[in-house]
Amino acid sequence: MAAITRRLRMGLIGGGPGSFIGPIHRLAAEMDREIELVAGAFSSDPGRSRAAGEAYGIDTARAYPDVATLLASETRREDKIDFLAIATPNFHHLAAAEAALNANFAVICDKPATATLDEARRLAAIVARSSRPFALTYTYSGYPLVREARARIAQGALGTIRKIVVEYPQGWLSQPSASKQADWRGDPSRSGPGGCITDIGVHAFHLAEFVTGLKTIKLFADLGTMVPGRLVDDDCHILLRFDNGARGVLLASQISIGERNGLRLRVYGDQGGLDWQQERPNQLWVHHLDGRTELVQAGDESLGSDARRVSRTPGGHPEGYLEAFANLYRDFARLLRSEPGALIPGMADGLRGMALIDMAVRGSRDEHGWCEFII
User: Fold this and answer.
1) Which DSSP string corresponds to 85-143?
2) CA separation for the pair 98, 275 (Å, rounded)
3) How many Å apart are CA 226 and CA 232, to the nearest integer?
4) Alpha-carbon distance values, 61 to 37, 148, 276 (Å)
5) By the 8 A CB rule, do 11 and 17 touch?
6) Looking at residues 210-222, what average pLDDT do you find?
């Protein structure tokens, strides 16, 4: 890596009082000392934005009342931000990203890319015209052993992929909830048309495609709303067909009592299989055709370059969610500095995620059966 002449300056949209993901962005961005948070429009309420700025320890003059003021003010500064991070509910993503890119700022945004597929198509056109990078925080692609699994599959360790099983059960929405986090996720005007499929289903979908290198070409979705009165889905079953002929299943649920954050990926080829679980992220199980099962652990000397590049500690020192998130920010810093080695999701991944949501919601509602995967 080239010598770092200065830390990249980050602006943050969202992340005000009561936010979960905003502070995560800040912690992840600053973990490797390559980035510093210097400005933001942290809330639509100017007072709450100032309070957040004070809590983050930034110059309160750079805790702006809205996105437009942030961009206009930062553009005029000699020490202006290098990029904007978007950590707001989905319906803000398009407008904020468009404004930032048009102001010549790079963007890193929470998944999904936008609230609807039509918005994602519009954003993709904006990104294509822009000279600045756009990235998405599909966090789980930042884990070292996820990247190790990806590399092994690309090298043919499992042979031809036949079956992919990805599941993401949670239980935190098994009952009606009035929390801030549940409120906007259950409101189609803010989350978009999907609920569980939008919040966690796209994570599972991206993980499956990221690790295997395969692309979905057809799907059959069964989305349900199990909690009375809820306006979006909270339980999902999706059958998948991939471009090499492999079959898959995606299960996502937020009403599975007792489950916490149970993202799990299993991939089976004609020469072997592998199994990775987010709640045990430092272990990757690889099954061989001769009956052996190999345990690959974070920090192992045998790991390939992709995994080693994003590993921070020796074996036996667990790395988790914050480190994976930080790996995406470190990759984004590489991207901004035109350095090699960045492996971070972008607009193409965002389009595919929004296409999944759109087709799953419409196909399930209208009982279309199998749908061609069309972006």
Assistant:
1) EEES-GGGHHHHHHHHHHTT-EEEEESSSSSSHHHHHHHHHHHHH-SS-EEEE-GGGGS
2) 39
3) 10
4) 14, 44, 45
5) no
6) 98
